[in-house]
Amino acid sequence: MALKPRYLLLLLFFISIRLYSVSQEVITRSWRAGQAFKQAKEHYNLRVYNLAIESLQEAIYRDPEFIDAHFLLAQIYYEIDSANLLVEQLNRALSIDPEYFPPAYINRAEGYIRLGKYDESLEDIIFFEKKYGVEYERFKPYVDLIKSKAEFAVEALKNPVSIDLKSLPSNINTYRDEYWPSFTVDNKQFFYTLKVEMGYNRFNEEIWTCDLTDGIYNDPKPVGYPVNTEFNEGASFVSPDGRYILFTGCNRNDGFGSCDIYMTVLNDGEWLKPKNLGPVVNSRHWESRPVISSDGTQLYFASNRPGGFGKSDIYRCDLKGYDKDGFPVWGKPVNLGPNINTEGDEMSPFIHPDNVTLYFSSNYYPGMGRFDLYKSEFVEGKWTKPVNLGYPINTHGDEIGIFVQADGKTAFIDKEVGDRRQQDIFYFELPEPAQAGMVTYVKGKVIDKETKKALSAVIDMNDFDLPDSILTVTSNSNGEFLIALVAGKKYGLTVDRESYMFYSGHFVVEKKDIEAYEILVELEPIKIGSKTILNNVFYKTDSYELSPVSKTELNKVVRLLKQNPTVKVEISGHTDNVGTEVYNQKLSENRAKSVYQYISEAGISEDRLSFKGYGQKRNIASNADEHGRAKNRRTEIEIVEK
Q: Collapsing DSSP states into helix, strand and coil, what is residue 103?
């Protein structure tokens, strides 16, 4: 079984100095050095690193060539993430005796990668392979990993990608740590995690937000209670439609493991008390960095639960429905498989609103540092081979997460800046190979046609290329809704509420179209004379044969009639003025009859249905252009009895 990278270095040092055996004899010329080393091991085993460092420094002061003390001090520098001190300490140890512990060359090679010294890393790895490769063959997976990273990095430095990294304004990036940026799909709301001082050297992670006006960030504010609490709300993410916030909560009373995934729902402009996603999603292990797809049907997250390919893998859950409070209910997590997950750590998934492009962080693929950012696409039912985003997006530091806006090219990351290594948020334009698909959105409001009051209604959106795939959302109490649309597709939209005629429309989103669709939907109460144009019922050219995509809308008509069993309707067909009146009259009548037959075959009594063709007699637009003629070619239903 291959060794896990994050634990191999620990194993190497444990082999060398057997830290857990306090009575282990060590070789030193100084009794005081030996006593200090004994104390250091006790402190180390208790993870009291500051006292362990003091004792080791005392031991080395008493005996500068005390090699075990040098190695243990290097181990501590590794664990406290100080690559510079790690390499310095290994240099001292290897200068005392280059043969004492040969795997230290592997350790130093990793340290060099974390310092961006890739040539030195390659030199150490190649030296170890040639001189000790056979003797230490069990370490070959780790040697290969370090070598692949160093070789990749050397080439990446020769072929950098072009980016212009810019900082967010000073009202966002402050003296505090800001990280985990996310936006709604319309780029009007911005959310991020802020580390807030609590006094006595204590900090708390909170979720903050601000609105954007013409691209300008207004002053941010905390999301507030009940979302922000005395616990940490980390790795936050706002859903593309702005209806949900997901975050990671650790060591909570309602938790199932060390860290769990939580969600809150926006209701009447207020965030509800967050809910733990429960034992189906969360395990008794570690779950983190949740994100949700733009259609709201898929949840992605990282977990170190057993049964994966490495220590931390990426999983996906599919939507099963909603609970009584409007919270999504998720199915069993599914591992994304070996095309994404490795024997190392895969973390921080981000599924772009195009629902095809996945960005994530990994420490196992060839890269510039310990963690790099990668891109994969879901093509023909499987994930493509991950591609490193390149230098200088990735560096010798840790690149943990990325957010990409709906345009598919504007990316946001957080990076350490300054001597304090504080986290700030930056943005840049991705190079073309790293970009995702372009996405726009439809933003609407639903009102009563007569009273003009806002209505909560059910909105169904379907991709005409996938007629059986329907996204369902509900407008809020203000009648508002927001749905992401992938460019280069045609969509059907229906808006439905009990006791009202439903509305239907469709959108053709061009591949380069980023402009949003904004619509006002006026629903008409069901009464005699009420009409609905079936805008998503289509026929083959010059034919009355129904297109397969029409069944989604026709099923809406069937449902409307089943919900209102006393209602009777007339189905009417209409044409433009192209062709003779006689031909158009006959075509419109046959088309109305096709709809009539579909509805009656679906179980609606024929005595509640009638059909009639009007040809070109009742045009609702000019026939001077194709846009007007398309409006005139239509099928309607009208309430004739209630």
A: coil
- Both 273 and 395 in one domain: the answer is yes
Q: How many domains does the chain contain in total?
A: 4
Q: DSSP state, 515?
A: P
Q: Residue 180 has which token pair?
A: 């985990």
Q: How many whole angstroms separate alpha carbon 247 and alpha carbon 206?
A: 10
Give me the percent of the chain exceeding a pLDDT of 90.
Answer: 80
Say which residues have a Cβ less than 8 Å from residue 241's Cβ, sequence separation at least 6.
184, 185, 294, 296, 473, 481, 482, 483, 484
Which contiguous run of DSSP H or E holds residue 430? none
**Do the bridges between strand 216-217 and strand 202-213 make them parallel or antiparallel, or are there none, so unpaired?**
antiparallel
Q: Answer whether residue 531 is part of any domain.
A: no
Residue 199 reports pLDDT greater than 90: no
- Do 384 and 375 form a contact (C-beta atoms < 8 A)? no
3-state DSSP call for residue 194?
strand
The 10s digit of each residue's pLDDT in 300-324 is 999 999 999 999 999 999 999 888 8
CATH number of the domain residue 551 falls in: 3.30.1330.60
User: In whole angstroms, what is the distance from residue 346 CA to residue 336 CA?
Assistant: 11
Asked if residue 530 is part of any domain, the answer here is no
pTM of the predicted model as reported, rounded to 2 decimal places:
0.87
Write the pLDDT tens digit of every residue in 435-465: 999 998 898 999 999 999 999 999 999 888 8
Q: How far apart are the first and last CA of the chain?
A: 73
Q: Is 289 exposed, middle or buried (0-12, 13-18, 19+ CB in 10 A)?
A: buried
Mean pLDDT of 536-549: 91
- Picking from 142, 158, 174, the residue at the C-terminal end of a domain is 158
Q: What is the mean pLDDT of residues 244-272?
A: 94
